[in-house]
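R.M. (postdoc): so does anyone remember the format we settled on? I'll just put the structure tokens first.
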């Protein structure tokens, strides 16, 4: 998924996905992702990290 597509899918979260979420292994994701532009670790923007009501 491109960063632009990820931003559209997760408009209020980081557009970056951790490798486990990207590979559909959500329970294994530790909530971190790599920002490929700045080469820094950032928050994973996957919907699985959103708080449940």
């Amino acid at each position: 998924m491109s960063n632009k597509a990820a931003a559209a899918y997760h408009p209020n979260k980081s557009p970056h996905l951790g490798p486990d979420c990207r590979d559909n292994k959500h329970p294994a994701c530790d909530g971190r992702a790599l920002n490929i532009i700045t080469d820094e670790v950032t928050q994973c923007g996957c919907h699985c990290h959103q708080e449940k009501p």
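R.M.: ...and that's the designed sequence above, right after the tokens. Also worth knowing: The helical segments are 3-9, 19-22. The two ends are 27 Å apart (CA to CA).
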